[in-house]
Write a structure and sequence with these properties.
The chain has 500 residues and is of the alpha/beta class. It has two domains: 396 residues, Rossmann fold (3-Layer(aba) Sandwich), CATH 3.40.50.12780; 99 residues, 2-Layer Sandwich (GMP Synthetase, Chain A, domain 3). 30% of the residues lie in helices and 24% in strands. It contains 15 helices and 23 strands. The longest helix has 18 residues.
Length: 500
């Protein structure tokens, strides 16, 4: 039986693996491995790191696709008192260099050669199926706090890198609250671990949460090509899926086209999305194809990450991210940072609790901007609470379009556009206007085989929206620019709209 009443993650997870010593623990590349196999990988990694000179407070940067090495290296690093730092090797050399300058790693574990970094840092290359590291000698750096478990990189809406340290206490409290919120989750489950490990949603909810509650994981290197994920879901088989909306949309589309049997998705006890908004039509599509709905949650890297979560499909409010999970205090403020009355149900969400980062790494000025004098953290999201306390994310404060002094929430406009039978997905951004300041512009992706023109889409919107909310311009696209985790990069579309 798992025990979450510990101070460090390795103190929770290692006993769980011992309990599974002769039982299934992780599925990878079509095969099940035992807890004993897992423990041996951890021990091998720990020995190589220790021989390399790794010590307390040091940071190990890992840029690998999902594999047994990710959780094994995490645990080996923690056993040695260090900090695990997963990064996206495709983030771009400038962003990587800026992030590495903040983190100052003891060494970097990569899946391929990175010549632009090898002259600056100790780099060790390993394969996707490797079960240990090659021997090496690292470079000792000034130590950071041993309380830190993970340091994530996030660029937020600015595109500039920031390093977000999360403590063992942050992650344990978030795992505990998520376990209490989403039911049923238990040690008999098998979680699909396909979200990239450098994403806090995937790392915490799809990797560390199952290991902490004694459950099994099915490791898939990446979602593309999707056949690997489908194989894991069907053959492991999985029972819990934490994925981003883009992944779910692809899976549902594959069911609709007959490429995937609906049974492999409908038998999941939990399908939960996060990391981006879940389009309203996805709920309808899931009900139609699977005979069941899917759940939605919300959070940020800085909140470890879950902040809101629907409990289950029966009690959820579709279109919301669920209520605030246990352990958080919250309040609403204006965009200018002024406290709103407790009776107000709409505003910028600020949160406080044991899952929130202690601050940005070596960036006191950014920390001061995002935390108020009472320790509340500014999520940067404009939200609305319904009568039952369920949260709807209206938009990022930076995404809100102000038309002649009126607020336009892109998500509201996008929801209406997606009601058009020819529209598969829509993204609305603000475009500069000399008189009104901004006007809405819509980027629209049509359903396969469907046809529509801009005038038709605008006319449809006029029938359902106030005049100032109606897009003045519509551009049709085959696909949206997305991040490595499938999140639509609105910043890129906004730049495109304002710099044609």
């Amino acid at each position: 039986m798992y025990n979450l009443d510990k101070n460090r993650l390795e103190e929770i997870i290692i006993p769980n693996l011992e309990a599974r010593r002769n039982k299934k623990s992780f599925w990878f590349d079509g095969e099940w491995n035992t807890g004993k196999d897992f423990l041996e990988i951890i021990e091998n990694c720990e020995k190589v790191l220790k021989d390399a000179g790794f010590s307390r407070g040091q940071r190990l940067v890992v840029m690998l696709k999902n594999s047994p090495l990710i959780p094994a290296l995490s645990l080996a690093v923690w056993k040695l008192g260090g900090i695990f730092c997963p990064l996206n090797e495709k983030a771009g050399s400038d962003i990587l260099k800026g992030t590495l300058d903040l983190i100052k790693p003891f060494a970097i574990i990569t899946g391929r050669e990175l010549p632009e970094l090898e002259n600056l840092w100790t780099c060790i290359q390993c394969g996707i199926s490797d079960r240990t590291l090659k021997k090496f000698t690292g470079k000792t750096q000034p130590p950071e706090s041993e309380d830190y478990a993970v340091i994530f990189s996030t660029s937020g809406t600015s595109g500039n890198p920031k390093a977000v340290p999360l403590t063992h206490g942050n992650l344990i409290s978030n795992i505990r609250a998520t376990k209490e919120t989403v039911y049923p989750l238990n040690e008999h489950d098998t979680f699909l671990t396909v979200l990239p490990n450098f994403h806090s949603f995937g790392y915490t909810c799809a990797t560390m949460l199952p290991l902490a509650i004694g459950a099994k994981i099915a490791l898939v290197p990446s979602f593309l090509p999707p056949q690997q994920s489908v194989r894991a879901i069907a053959e492991a088989p999985t029972t819990v899926m934490y994925i981003v909306p883009a992944m779910l949309s692809f899976l549902l589309m594959s069911v609709e086209k007959g490429k995937i049997k609906s049974e492999i998705l409908s038998r999941q006890s939990v399908i939960c999305t996060g990391g981006d908004r879940l389009a309203p039509n996805i709920h309808k599509q899931a009900l139609k194809l699977l005979g069941r709905d899917v759940m939605e949650g919300y959070g940020l890297t800085e909140t470890s990450p879950v902040l809101c979560m629907n409990h289950d499909c029966e009690t959820q409010h579709s279109g919301t991210s669920g209520p605030i999970i246990p352990g958080y205090e919250y309040k609403l403020k204006t965009r200018d940072g002024e406290d709103l009355p407790e009776t107000e149900r709409e505003g910028v969400l600020w949160a406080k609790g044991p899952s929130i980062t202690p601050g940005y790494l070596h960036a006191p000025e950014i920390t001061a901007e995002r935390f108020d004098s009472e320790g509340f953290f500014n999520t940067g999201d404009y939200v609305r609470f319904d009568e039952d306390g369920y949260v709807s994310i209206l938009d990022r404060v930076t995404d809100i379009i102000i038309v002649g002094g009126f607020n336009v929430y892109p998500q509201e406009v996008e929801k209406v556009l997606c009601e058009h039978p020819a529209v598969h997905a829509a993204v609305v951004v603000g475009m500069h206007h000399d008189i009104n300041g901004e006007i809405p512009k819509a980027y629209v992706q049509l359903e396969e085989g469907a046809e529509a023109n801009d005038r038709e889409i605008i006319r449809f919107a006029k029938e359902k929206l106030a005049h100032f909310k109606v897009p003045r311009s519509v551009e049709f696209v085959k696909e949206f620019p997305v991040s490595a985790t499938g999140k639509i990069l609105r910043r890129i579309l906004r730049e495109r709209a304002n710099n044609p």
